[in-house]
Amino acid sequence: MSENTITDMVRCVYNTHNTVTGSVCRTNTENLLPEHIALFDQLSEEIKKSYYGTGIMIPEKLKGKRVLDVGCGSGSLVFILSKLVGPTGYVVGVDLSEMLIEIARSQVDYHRKAWGYDTMNCEFVLGNVENLPFPPESFDIVVSSGVISMCPDKEAVFAVVHSVLKEGGQFLLSDVCGEDDIPEECRSNDVIWTCGLGGLRWDRLAEVASKTGFTRPHLRQAAPVDIAEEYVKMIENSRFTCAGWRLFKLPEDHRYDACRVTYKGNIPEYSDQLPWDIDLTFKKGQGVDVDGELTTLLSTSYLRENFDFADTNVKPVTKRNQNPFAYLDKLQSEGRLPPSIFKVE
């Protein structure tokens, strides 16, 4: 199946309001702060009933930021972020589905009133995420949920996201990834592809990220995907997960050694601690030895003012590019496995 044919198939499915895919999505409240859950509850009913994400991820330190949502669907995350960036920030959502963009645009005034704004600080653009219509370094933060897995040229999406992101900016990616490759003949199945089961194998993400200029990814969250037996047989028992990662675009000429970093607690909503990934949480006032790669990331990203840095004599090993399936297996063994984010029926 050609790339254009795949893109047309995805557009067609989501223009019929997801009735073809049979996927049912859940909001991952276990990964969200109470104030973020409250904002989701305040979304219009029209937006809530057309939410098809693979797990919400909310960036830190949003006030006044320009944020891009790649594959925004009907705009649920765009509207939440438009509240969190405040009136001096701005959020843009891009999607290739005419129907979902139409729904999103129809709800702008509802959320302007709900957030108490005189002028709404967001917009929705119809377009292909493999060819974003924005100049370089237009955004402080980019988010994406459940879209890149459906793109035929995933590397192209990473490259264009890297281009539009400012140096020091963060890319929060929540998407479907596989433990193994699915059979080639499954790639033409509209349900399998449009539910994201043609996504990147998890262990190739770091390679694509590095090739397109991003840091290696840190795993923030993961939850299972519930796949009907009919499709399990077709994909030869491959496992899939909705995994959430953080990546950054950093200056090329800055590299630092290992360091002891101390979180200042000066990010609103994270005054006591800042969860970084599944293995690391920065607690206010407590120094943590991190390797040179994470030192470079923290000291050259938009989060640099939130940490103090001091020399260290140790050579720490900082985990990253964690295996989401091993993480889910661990959660299951501990009786803490979260419910599936969505079902493929």
Description:
With 345 residues, this protein is an alpha/beta fold. The chain folds into two domains: 3-249, Rossmann fold; 259-311, no CATH class. The chain has twelve helices and 14 strands. Strands 1-14-7-8-6-5-2-3-4 form a nine-stranded mixed sheet. β5 (139-145), α7 (154-164) and β6 form a beta-alpha-beta unit. The longest helix is centred in the N-terminal third of the chain and has 13 residues, at 3-15. The protein starts with a helix and ends with a strand. Mean pLDDT is 90; it is low at 18-23. Keywords: S-adenosyl-L-methionine, Transferase. Residues 63-192 form the Methyltransferase domain. This is Arsenite methyltransferase. GO terms for molecular function: arsenite methyltransferase activity. It comes from Pomacea canaliculata.
Lay out the secondary structure.
Elements: H1 3-15, E1 23-25, H2 34-41, H3 45-48, E2 66-70, H4 76-84, E3 90-95, H5 98-106, H6 108-115, E4 122-126, E5 139-145, H7 154-164, E6 165-178, H8 190-194, H9 205-211, E7 218-227, H10 229-234, E8 240-248, E9 259-263, E10 273-275, E11 281-283, E12 287-290, H11 292-300, E13 307-310, H12 324-333, E14 342-344
Parallel strand pairs: 2-3, 2-5, 3-4, 5-6, 7-14
Antiparallel strand pairs: 1-14, 6-8, 7-8, 9-12, 9-13, 10-11
Pfam families: Methyltransf_31 (PF13847)
Enzyme class: transferase
EC number: 2.1.1.137
